[in-house]
């Protein structure tokens, strides 16, 4: 009987869960529909089968949602007995479809990689020590022969092969180059290492050895052709494009000599130059999968002598890397720790201008001048009689190179990538046709219009300024007022931080705010709602391994729970860790708790955020961002330092929180002594409890007052204007109490504050004062803290905030909330591989949170600037978790580094779209972080060590190979800190002028480098930043980020080397990481991305805005009025193929490229005929 009752209860719970899921994704749903879906799911073994049944009944649902439903149904009604994992996840159908996401988990390979990397670092350290000792003993070389011999013996032990002549003379850097090859991903690294050493002998000896090849190979015992060696052979087949040559020394081995490699002069057809069975000398110039490319033109065909022998590396060569081989073009090819084949330019400083052949008339003219004796031959250093003319330098004469995507799919993603599966962007609007969606789209257009109007006013003002400000001082009789005007204008721009009037009012003068709380810290702690439940809470944590805690913002859970647990002895077993979704929250909460705990910040109480660790050996309570805890799990999977983990603000569902859920759920089974506390808003508590083994829920009653909710009768088209009118209405008609207005971002907030200030000014002095206070993350913290101060008596304050004030901040004294119903969300499109910030309607849960802000101090009102119908039908019940709408590259890499390969079976609370995971795996594969089987490579493991997005990690590791890591470190640090330049609205022209001084012709990355170097040259001066409209806070943060990255580089003994003035190396390193962000100039207008052929434009603030080069790489795209590229750098298209062969290839010259096919032919303007009359279809008519 009891069993039946339990089954019924389970069934009712399942029906309720399915109803909730349907409501979240599709809107209001019926119980009958839920039961029908459960019945279909019970009888479906796989996701595909379930999907087909749903489609048959006319229900079109996204893949991830179908799988989520089946998981829920199979949790109660398993289809048939299977292993526990299959039962929990119900992923058997998904793993068939997405094999690349269902690779078996394995930690062994990851541990092996970690050991290898550790050994490598130790080896580098030893090498450094040996070099140091050698440098010290260089003066005493004669007497210290024994030690040198020991050194040499050590090196022989480390690297048992190869000819070691001249070892003592070589620099340590070159030896590192020989060892660095281990990281190459192909199997030829050992062979290259041998060769690298053999080639280091003196030049004369090398030529002599090559004259007697037979003896050499008898000694070395090589059994296959080696790169850059000369061999004798016989022509076996001749074709138009080249000939095959069989090696005499190696039976059955042959290679191809392309027609371009036959002679220094131009050969039209191979038949004209070689005959079958002809004996030739050839040099191996490349080896790929046992296919040999050969050259005849590099070898003297009479003697077999190598005409272009490899040079011995000099002291000037770039730092530690691999054996380098110099090609005919004076370029060096090597494979480095970043796994890329790098072709370096010759040591000569690179010229920006490409070489171009002279035209026939120019050539004739040059010959005549030389023949007449008017000019000497040596005045034409590039003259080449064989080629029939000379090459001379001319801007923009680069040959056109057609590049296309390499559509070869790796084995583990066969049939799953963007080339084979239609990837749709995430659906973020519940009702795309509703009034809220229309209002969001209209607001973007209005913002654009307002921005353009401001810019127009700015231009008009600047045009009215006299251009020559010195003239009035030279003119003895200037016009009235002219001298005075010039004097004023000369001062323009001297003070960078002239604020707009509204900001001066809010922050400029010394505040005369009302009295803050008179209570002592202890009394404040005791006044919090959680204090009354202290004993019950400690007991609940003791009794339950997992506890979900619900409490309104301001109930004290974030600051008090950790202290209560510390007081009750949990810190004796380990630290108490508390995660926050935002950096600002982690820092401010830690500061407050340190005050209450009675210690200095960083001692017993500390915090850790990305690039900043403020903890010490005594720290027992540690606040951190959820991303930092994820990195700690990467280093210590059992979190052995911690006794309690608290996931605070878990309802925000950041991507890191969602991954932590899955990892901690597994960890709790291994560590029974670990306690986990999850704090959440009321709505999600049931869901969290169900996920964590149906754990108990502990509720803290909030001190909330009733809030009256008011809706608009009609939908608002311009919500920003409506919000400002509402604020003024409240200020003029409602009793005292502060106002909180929610807007979407910095630009909107600044615009609203400006407009509100002007409207208040127009109302005159009889109106009570309204203090306007903005809050957004880019605002300095001292300005942010003003919002907590009470206003002076007789005035009212309005706080204009982003959704940070929804839950993370508690502001006392708020009685009125104005909620337009929108927020900005980061949304990823896996098809385009792009993220964009989009204004979207908030969820019903967020709307309730916002309304709750008005009921903290007393009964309040919430003005919702949307209709009740929009609230019910157009807002999703809860926000879409971040994991289902953003790029998963970094998350996937971190999980792979933990040995988690089976991403489909990983226990996500809400699984991400498989397409987004596939897109992330594709990106990691093309960066070289994954191999052909989808497993982590050594490069991937190193990339995971850096707290950076995968492309940035790859860029940093590539810079080590290219010898420019010092500059790349600075650039990454500058990019990570956000906006460096300050552009006050009323001094935009002056700010732009100062900024232009730093512009570099190569692009924005080098501009950022120039700013940092200039700041460094001025001894990191603050006043210098003010003068140049640069945010000193951002530069100081960049300095901290750089130090953090430097410590990780030091840990793995990666060299930090400067490239000096060789900017080509720097641009190549950027290309190595961001090759998929390439764009090419479009003949019509702007640029087209190489990946999706999407129209994009260089941002007006870019150093390249005026130049518009042919090929660029950008850091990211930002959508304002158009899709703008930010942080743009000029590149050479050859580098794309060279540095990312998995992603790009040179298109077949015999076929028309995709880009050419898509180009629309536009004829010249013809005023006498209609626009399309030139087309063939019209002519036929």
UniProtKB/TrEMBL annotation:
<dbReference type="Pfam" id="PF00575">
    <property type="entry name" value="S1"/>
</dbReference>
<dbReference type="InterPro" id="IPR007502">
    <property type="entry name" value="Helicase-assoc_dom"/>
</dbReference>
<keyword id="KW-0378">Hydrolase</keyword>
<keyword id="KW-0508">mRNA splicing</keyword>
<feature type="domain" description="Helicase C-terminal">
    <location>
        <begin position="719"/>
        <end position="899"/>
    </location>
</feature>
<dbReference type="InterPro" id="IPR002464">
    <property type="entry name" value="DNA/RNA_helicase_DEAH_CS"/>
</dbReference>
<dbReference type="Pfam" id="PF00271">
    <property type="entry name" value="Helicase_C"/>
</dbReference>
<dbReference type="InterPro" id="IPR049621">
    <property type="entry name" value="S1_DHX8_helicase"/>
</dbReference>
<feature type="region of interest" description="Disordered">
    <location>
        <begin position="75"/>
        <end position="221"/>
    </location>
</feature>
<dbReference type="InterPro" id="IPR011709">
    <property type="entry name" value="DEAD-box_helicase_OB_fold"/>
</dbReference>
<keyword id="KW-0347">Helicase</keyword>
<feature type="domain" description="S1 motif">
    <location>
        <begin position="228"/>
        <end position="297"/>
    </location>
</feature>
<protein>
    <recommendedName>
        <fullName>RNA helicase</fullName>
        <ecNumber>3.6.4.13</ecNumber>
    </recommendedName>
</protein>
<dbReference type="GO" id="GO:0003724">
    <property type="term" value="F:RNA helicase activity"/>
</dbReference>
<feature type="compositionally biased region" description="Basic and acidic residues">
    <location>
        <begin position="160"/>
        <end position="170"/>
    </location>
</feature>
<keyword id="KW-0539">Nucleus</keyword>
<dbReference type="InterPro" id="IPR048333">
    <property type="entry name" value="HA2_WH"/>
</dbReference>
<dbReference type="InterPro" id="IPR049588">
    <property type="entry name" value="DHX8_GH2-like"/>
</dbReference>
<dbReference type="InterPro" id="IPR001650">
    <property type="entry name" value="Helicase_C-like"/>
</dbReference>
<dbReference type="InterPro" id="IPR011545">
    <property type="entry name" value="DEAD/DEAH_box_helicase_dom"/>
</dbReference>
<feature type="compositionally biased region" description="Basic and acidic residues">
    <location>
        <begin position="308"/>
        <end position="319"/>
    </location>
</feature>
<dbReference type="InterPro" id="IPR014001">
    <property type="entry name" value="Helicase_ATP-bd"/>
</dbReference>
<dbReference type="GO" id="GO:0000390">
    <property type="term" value="P:spliceosomal complex disassembly"/>
</dbReference>
<feature type="compositionally biased region" description="Basic and acidic residues">
    <location>
        <begin position="178"/>
        <end position="216"/>
    </location>
</feature>
<dbReference type="InterPro" id="IPR012340">
    <property type="entry name" value="NA-bd_OB-fold"/>
</dbReference>
<dbReference type="Pfam" id="PF07717">
    <property type="entry name" value="OB_NTP_bind"/>
</dbReference>
<feature type="compositionally biased region" description="Basic and acidic residues">
    <location>
        <begin position="81"/>
        <end position="153"/>
    </location>
</feature>
<feature type="domain" description="Helicase ATP-binding">
    <location>
        <begin position="538"/>
        <end position="701"/>
    </location>
</feature>
<dbReference type="GO" id="GO:0071013">
    <property type="term" value="C:catalytic step 2 spliceosome"/>
</dbReference>
<keyword id="KW-0507">mRNA processing</keyword>
<dbReference type="InterPro" id="IPR003029">
    <property type="entry name" value="S1_domain"/>
</dbReference>
<dbReference type="GO" id="GO:0003723">
    <property type="term" value="F:RNA binding"/>
</dbReference>
<feature type="region of interest" description="Disordered">
    <location>
        <begin position="303"/>
        <end position="331"/>
    </location>
</feature>
<dbReference type="GO" id="GO:0016787">
    <property type="term" value="F:hydrolase activity"/>
</dbReference>
<dbReference type="InterPro" id="IPR027417">
    <property type="entry name" value="P-loop_NTPase"/>
</dbReference>
<keyword id="KW-0067">ATP-binding</keyword>
<dbReference type="GO" id="GO:0005524">
    <property type="term" value="F:ATP binding"/>
</dbReference>
<keyword id="KW-0547">Nucleotide-binding</keyword>
<dbReference type="Pfam" id="PF21010">
    <property type="entry name" value="HA2_C"/>
</dbReference>
<dbReference type="Pfam" id="PF00270">
    <property type="entry name" value="DEAD"/>
</dbReference>
<dbReference type="Pfam" id="PF04408">
    <property type="entry name" value="WHD_HA2"/>
</dbReference>
């Amino acid at each position: 009987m009891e069993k039946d009752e339990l089954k019924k209860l389970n069934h009712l719970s399942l029906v309720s869960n399915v109803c909730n899921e349907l409501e979240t994704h599709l809107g209001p749903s019926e119980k009958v529909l839920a039961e029908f879906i459960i019945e279909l799911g019970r009888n479906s073994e796989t996701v595909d089968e379930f999907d087909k049944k749903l489609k048959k009944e006319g229900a079109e649902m996204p893949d991830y949602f179908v799988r989520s439903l089946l998981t829920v149904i199979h949790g109660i009604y398993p289809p048939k007995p299977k292993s526990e994992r299959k039962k929990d996840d119900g992923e058997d159908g998904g793993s068939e479809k997405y094999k690349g996401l269902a690779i078996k988990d394995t930690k062994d390979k990851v541990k092996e990689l970690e050991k290898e990397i550790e050994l490598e670092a130790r080896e580098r350290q030893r090498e450094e020590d040996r070099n140091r000792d050698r440098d010290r003993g260089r003066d005493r070389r004669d007497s210290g022969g024994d030690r040198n011999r020991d050194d040499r013996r050590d090196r022989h032990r480390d690297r048992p092969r190869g000819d070691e002549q001249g070892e003592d003379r070589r620099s340590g850097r070159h030896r590192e180059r020989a060892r660095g090859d281990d990281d190459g991903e192909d199997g030829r690294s050992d062979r290259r290492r041998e060769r690298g050493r053999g080639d280091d002998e003196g030049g004369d000896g090398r030529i002599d050895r090559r004259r007697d090849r037979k003896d050499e190979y008898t000694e070395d015992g090589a059994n296959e052709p080696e790169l850059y060696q000369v061999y004798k052979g016989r022509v076996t087949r001749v074709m138009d494009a080249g000939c095959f040559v069989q090696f005499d020394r190696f039976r059955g081995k042959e290679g191809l000599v392309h027609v371009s490699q036959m002679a220094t002069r131009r050969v039209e057809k191979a038949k004209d130059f070689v005959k079958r069975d002809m004996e030739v000398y050839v040099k191996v110039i490349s080896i790929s999968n046992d296919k040999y490319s050969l050259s005849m033109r590099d070898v003297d065909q009479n003697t077999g002598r190598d005409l272009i022998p490899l040079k011995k590396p000099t002291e000037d060569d770039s730092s530690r890397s691999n054996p380098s081989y110099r090609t005919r073009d004076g370029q060096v090819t090597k494979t480095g720790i970043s796994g890329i084949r790098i072709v370096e330019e010759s040591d000569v400083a690179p010229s920006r201008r490409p070489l171009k052949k002279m035209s026939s008339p120019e050539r004739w003219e040059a010959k005549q001048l030389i023949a007449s004796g008017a000019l000497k031959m040596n005045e034409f250093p590039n003259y080449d009689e064989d080629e029939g003319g000379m090459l001379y330098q001319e801007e923009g004469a680069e040959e056109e190179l057609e590049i296309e995507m390499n559509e070869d799919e790796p084995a583990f993603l066969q049939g799953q990538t963007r080339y084979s599966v239609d990837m749709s962007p995430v659906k973020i609007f519940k009702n795309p046709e509703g009034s809220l969606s229309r209002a969001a789209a209209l607001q973007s257009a209005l913002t654009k219009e307002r921005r353009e109007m401001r810019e127009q006013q700015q231009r008009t003002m600047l045009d009215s300024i006299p251009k020559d400000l010195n003239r009035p001082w030279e003119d003895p009789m200037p016009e009235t007022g002219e001298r005075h005007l010039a004097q004023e204008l000369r001062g323009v721009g001297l003070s960078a931080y002239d604020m707009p009037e509204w900001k001066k009012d809010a922050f400029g003068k010394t505040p005369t705010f009302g009295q803050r709380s008179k209570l002592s810290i202890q009394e404040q702690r005791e006044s919090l709602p959680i204090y009354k439940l202290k004993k019950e809470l400690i007991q609940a944590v003791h009794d339950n391994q997992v506890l979900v805690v619900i409490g309104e913002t301001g109930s004290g859970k974030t600051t008090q729970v950790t202290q209560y647990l510390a007081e009750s002895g949990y810190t004796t077993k380990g630290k108490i860790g508390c995660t926050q979704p935002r950096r600002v929250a982690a820092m401010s909460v830690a500061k407050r708790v340190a005050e209450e705990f009675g210690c200095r910040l960083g001692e017993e109480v500390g915090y850790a955020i990305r690039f900043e660790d403020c903890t010490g050996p005594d720290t027992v309570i540690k606040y951190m961002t959820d991303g930092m805890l994820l990195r700690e799990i990467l280093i210590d999977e059992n979190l052995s330092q911690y006794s309690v983990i608290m996931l605070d603000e878990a309802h925000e569902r950041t991507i890191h929180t969602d991954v932590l859920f899955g990892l901690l759920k597994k960890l709790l089974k291994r560590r029974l002594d670990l306690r986990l506390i999850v704090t959440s808003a009321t709505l999600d508590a049931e869901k969290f409890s169900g996920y964590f083994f149906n754990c108990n829920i502990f509720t803290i009653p909030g001190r909330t007052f009733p809030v009256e909710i008011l809706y608009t009768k009609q939908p608002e088209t311009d919500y920003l204007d409506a919000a400002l009118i509402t604020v003024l209405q409240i200020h003029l008609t409602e009793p005292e109490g502060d106002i909180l207005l929610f807007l979407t971002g910095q630009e909107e907030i600044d615009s609203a504050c400006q407009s509100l200030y002007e409207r208040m000014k127009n109302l005159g002095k009889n109106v009570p004062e309204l203090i306007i206070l903005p809050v957004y993350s880019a605002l300095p913290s001292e300005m942010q803290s003003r919002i907590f101060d009470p206003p002076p008596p007789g005035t009212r304050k309005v706080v204009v905030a982003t959704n940070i004030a929804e839950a993370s901040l508690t502001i006392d004294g708020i009685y009125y909330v104005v909620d337009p119903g929108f927020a900005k969300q980061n949304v990823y499109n896996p098809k385009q591989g792009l993220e964009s910030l989009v204004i979207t309607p908030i969820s019903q849960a967020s709307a309730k949170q916002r309304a709750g802000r008005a009921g903290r101090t007393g009964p309040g009102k919430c003005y919702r600037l949307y209709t009740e119908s929009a609230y019910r039908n157009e807002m999703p019940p809860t926000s879409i978790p971040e994991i289902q709408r953003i790029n998963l590259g970094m998350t996937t890499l971190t999980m792979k580094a933990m040995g988690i390969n089976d991403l489909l079976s990983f226990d996500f609370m809400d699984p991400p779209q498989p397409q987004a995971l596939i897109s992330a795996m594709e990106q990691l594969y093309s960066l070289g972080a994954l191999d052909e089987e989808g497993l982590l490579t050594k490069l991937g493991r190193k990339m995971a060590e850096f707290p950076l997005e995968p492309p940035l990690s790859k860029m940093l590791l590539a810079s080590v190979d290219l010898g420019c890591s010092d500059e790349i470190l600075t650039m990454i640090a500058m990019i990570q800190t956000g906006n460096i330049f300050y552009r006050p609205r009323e001094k935009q022209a002056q700010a732009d002028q100062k900024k232009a001084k730093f512009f570099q012709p190569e692009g924005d990355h080098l501009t950022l480098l120039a700013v940092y170097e200039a700041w460094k040259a001025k001894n990191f001066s603050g006043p210098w930043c003010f003068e140049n409209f640069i945010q000193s806070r951002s530069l100081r943060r960049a300095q901290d980020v750089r130090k953090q990255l430097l410590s990780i580089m030091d840990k793995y003994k990666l060299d930090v080397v400067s490239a000096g003035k060789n900017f080509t190396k720097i641009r190549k390193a950027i290309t190595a990481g961001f090759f998929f962000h390439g764009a090419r100039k479009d003949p019509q207008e702007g640029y087209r991305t190489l990946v999706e052929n999407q129209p994009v434009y260089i941002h007006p603030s870019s150093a390249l805005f005026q130049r518009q080069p042919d090929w660029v790489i950008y850091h990211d795209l930002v959508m304002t009025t158009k899709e703008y590229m930010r942080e743009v750098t000029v590149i050479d298209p050859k580098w794309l193929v060279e540095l990312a062969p998995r992603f790009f290839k040179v298109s077949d010259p015999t076929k028309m490229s995709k880009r050419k096919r898509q180009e629309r032919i536009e004829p010249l303007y013809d005023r006498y005929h209609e626009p399309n009359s030139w087309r063939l279809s019209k002519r036929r008519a």
